[in-house]
Amino acid sequence: MNHIIYGDNRISYLTKEEILNPFLILNIFNCKASDDDVQEVCWTLFSSAIRPAYWMKFESPLYLYECFKQIVRLIEADYLIMQIRPNYVQKVKFGTSGLKPTIRADDEFTEALIESRQEAFKLLTKVNSQNGFYRIKLDLYDLLFEGLEPDCVDYCSSLHEFIYDTYQDISKIIRSLFVLSSSDTERYISERDMTILEQYVGFGIDTDSSTFGYSDTIYDIFENESAKDLISIADQARILIGESNYWQTHGNPGNVLYYFHEFLFIIESFHEYITDTPGMSELAKMRWQIPADRLETIHNLSGKQKKRPFKYVLKAFREKPLSEWRSILENWKQAVLSNHTDSKILNEARETYEFIVKLIEITTILEYQPDFN
Fold first, then answer.
1. Which of 158-172, 174-188, 246-260 has the highest mean pLDDT?
2. pLDDT per residue over 78-108, tens digit each?
3. How many contiguous H segments (helices) and E segments (strands) does the chain have?
4. Class of residue 309 by CB neighbours under 10 A (exposed 0-12, middle 13-18, buried 19+)
5. Which of 116, 225, 300, 332 counts the highest number of beta carbons within 10 A?
6. Which of 353, 148, 334 is nearest to 236 (CA)?
């Protein structure tokens, strides 16, 4: 994934409500007798990364993307649960007269033996401390990316060297969360828990915080792709919403993941820039001195937008907050992966497409922005 800060532990796929009560994500188990269904979803994701063209087994590439989101949301819930249930094994029933809970040694743990809450928490602590929350999420994305076979970028993944261990770890997390899902006692959120969880709520997908921590800014938007290529690809992605059964005759849907991540970075990096730049409200009022011959090459901005580009960007984010732009972009991506036409998404995506293209165009003329200092 380009542009992101490696090692950043922010929550990226949960809503504010889910962050404040991560046990809600465990409803995926829906009081079932086993975790087999979720384990199968996990296995499907891993299978796609090691079996060529495995994604073509399904109706559309969207199925694998939904598998990824289902598992990564569980991993984020796991991380939050471990923030509010630290050192559970040492604390459970500690000091209770006559009670000596039996905890198996580390080497005795297998998926079949994760039967009690104590064992589940102990295993979650072990797996998370060994691998790290960020590492597990990145591995999941690598699985999805490789499974959808992109050919638009050269990349090197070390995932296959550790794929069995990674699968075992995620499988154990799923099993442990399944055990915890049946406990009403453990699902209770106390005031202390709420205080801890509130530290993460600002990262909800329904907030105006960026999805990822970025190491790059709007000045790095063309680090991997040119303005011309990005605009062309955005146009192709817009057209694909109106296509049915596109993936029956085309390959490499991983390219969709790659470019929509670039589009997300464009929107979120601009939002960060206008939010974090001191005096932006005044800077937005200032006219840019762009040479006449350069103005003639700008085709996607109106006359007013060429004069004061940041005024346009500020207005766009005031009328539609970042969370809404991001939600439409996500729906657009899923529509492209789905193999079905969607007239509603087509209309919403058209506005988002125009917004992205304008931001790309503005990026090409950043050298002409006035000096506010």
1. 246-260
2. 999 999 986 554 444 433 333 333 333 444 4
3. 16, 0
4. buried
5. 332
6. 353
